[in-house]
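User: Quick sanity check before I run a bigger batch. Here is a single chain. Can you write out its predicted 3D structure?
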Amino acid sequence: MESGDVTWILVSSALVLFMTPGLALFYGGMVRSKNVLNMLLMNVYCMGIVPIVWVLVGYSLVTGEGPAAGIIGTLEYAGMAGVVDPEEILFAFFAMTFAVITPALISGGVADRMKWSAWAVFVPVWVLLVFVPVFYWIYGPNGWLEERGSLDFAGGTVIHINAGVAVLALIAVLGKRRGWPKDIMPPHNLPLVMIGAAILWFGWFGFNAGSAGAADASAIQAFMNTFLAGSAGMIAWLAAETVKGGKATTLGAASGIVAGLVAITPAAGHVGGLAALAFGAIAGVLCFAAISLKYRFGYDDSLDVVAVHLVGGLIGGFLIGFFADPEAFGGADFKAGLFFGGGAELLVEQVLSMVVVMAFCFVVTYIIAKALDATIGLRVSEEDETRGLDLSQHAETAYNLTESGSMDRV
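Assistant: Done. Predicted structure follows.
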């Protein structure tokens, strides 16, 4: 690698890592004030435990080419044994930042009711049993989905679909929050949400453009796509909520940005021209509409991880089958989509990849959740949920209440 490429990947790694505290603020502002510290810690904890799991066994399992028919790697590099090439260390770190944020995304779906002790165990177990195999299938040296030709440039399936499905499996065991959906549970701090969304958008340039692996034409196109999709997602979401409710909201703007970014993630280095606008706009409208699904089907996804990340990831992965354009990248070595003369072959592979990952993730995550529930317990008591997780799980409060001021802690 040229020194400029190395510099870009180092910067991209830092940008992706910065996304996790950004996500913590984004989610933290959306929960009620009595649970904000718990949400912040659920996210920041991933920055502590996941790197340890990654260097001990995770990295080896996603890079060691084993005899398992493209299913999983080996323990050849456990503890980073033999990993001395600077470029290999650089890749290990860049991939690790993706491993960090993926379980952090899940925290938004289980907000307000999951035991801290259960979360502390769940994260490393889930990373090893779900994230690592899926990462290998799509990015490993002989991953079976990659070899079939499915495309996921920066993690639409590996990260966003994976996290969204994991939320569905977890809340199937956790159940609904006390009082949901009858009680109104609005965000307690929308400025925090907006700050978090801005940090996420900023970090996403490293997320997507860094996945090019070099400071090259693919990175430049991914950079532009990332900006356009986020913009289109925001405008489309604002338009949709204005049509439905008559008002544009700051929460809608922040959610639309993230929806557009999620949708373009798997395609950032595979589409050119104005395709990113289509990805963002479609995601902005459909992810907004998908929020209503939790009320229709009765699953309590606290912060709409399913609507934004699962649905957004599915939209992005599906649209690749139509918009993938190798000629936009100088005749790159990947299949063209339906709109660019490639036929339906890529679309079929995209659907297969997403369906397989969803099925695998749901089943394994559900088993993990049931095992935790049967041993240490998955959910806090009704009393602790009413008091708030900040006090009941961490003996802390985010805000000091005084006689001259007050804050709703319900």
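The CA atoms of residues 149 and 349 lie 7 Å apart.

User: Great, the batch can go ahead then.
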